[in-house]
Amino acid sequence: MYSYEERLRAVKLYIKLGKRVQATIRELGYPTKNALKGWHREYERLQDLPIRSAPRTPKFSAAQKQVALEHYATHGRCISWTLRALGYPGRATLTAWVREAFPDTMTISNATYGPGNHSDAVKQAAVVGLYSRQESAQALAKKFGVSRPTLYAWKTQILGPEAPAMMKRKKSALHPELEELERQREALQRDIRELQIEHDLLKTASEMIKKELGGDLRNLSNREKAMLIVALKNRYKTPALLARLGLARSSYFYHRARMNLEDKYLPIRQAMKEAFESNHRCYGYRRLKAYMTRKSISISEKVVQRLMKQEALIVPKPKRRRYSSYLGEISPAPENIINREFQPAAPNEKWLTDITEFHIRAGKVYLSPIIDCFDGLVISWT
Length: 382
Description:
- This protein is mainly α.
- It has five domains: about 5-115, no CATH class; about 115-160; about 190-260, no CATH class; about 265-310; about 350-380, no CATH class.
- The chain is built from 16 helices and five strands.
- It has a three-stranded antiparallel β-sheet with strand order 1-4-5, with no helix packed on it. Strands 2-3 form a two-stranded antiparallel sheet.
- Strand 2 and strand 3 form a beta hairpin.
- Pfam families: HTH_21.
- Keywords: Coiled coil.
- One of its GO terms (molecular function) is DNA binding.
- This is Transposase.
């Protein structure tokens, strides 16, 4: 209950401050928002306030109040536990009962009464400490014995709502040469990133697709490009890979969706690989088509060609030797030191060497041994 003077003072201050509820409560420390508005309506209607307000009927009986206080005193003096156990009253009501019944044991926090209980000097010192940031806001609030929101409320009260709690440090202007070096560094980083993407794309393409690209990723099909993006999307962003490969976004998602479909040619692919490898990798698409027909697998020659291309089943072809009329040039004959005397008296006196050419399927191979004439021992060869 508030006296007539307290209620009248609150209403006049409310009118003076332009009917701002929070400003009035912050200045006085009382009452509640609804009580202040009710006093103002009554003052406008009667041009005054009644000396004594009509007594309100208590919501809880004296017996309920006594039960709540006994439970609080006998169960560890915990307001939250009493509220959970009994289910009544509200926290503010029970706190008021406890303050009334146990005034010596109930500690009253300064933050309960809001910022109006401290002097202006204390508020200014707290706001200065908040701006200097030599300690955290929580530690500063604990130092002044208030809550953290109260500390910021003081800041708003003194400096206004637009003032920040901490001034941001502005970046000092760099020297023009430093700015140029910074731009060059960023450009080099972009170039390195682009080169790394290209390197990883070429490496992944050679490992997954096994196709000779000649350093140009544009030779890949859209499906193969989509496979590369799926393989590298965890390392690079998808838009960067799409731009580097020159692939449209819709094409990428189309082929990625088709990758999840079941391959109807999977058994045929396995059979073609086995037939190709078991026949020394010399079957072309016609013989593979005939092999599939013997296995009762109906498939067209064009499909066989496409599957062979996708699985890299390439038949090696011998290179054609071109005709050359060049017979060489006649050079001066070397001196005949041996003079057909191939029997030395001791080892390592006479060595002979020659070059022999062998023709194999992989190409030409040359052998050049060094032989000791004394016993025919091979000294070295290459």
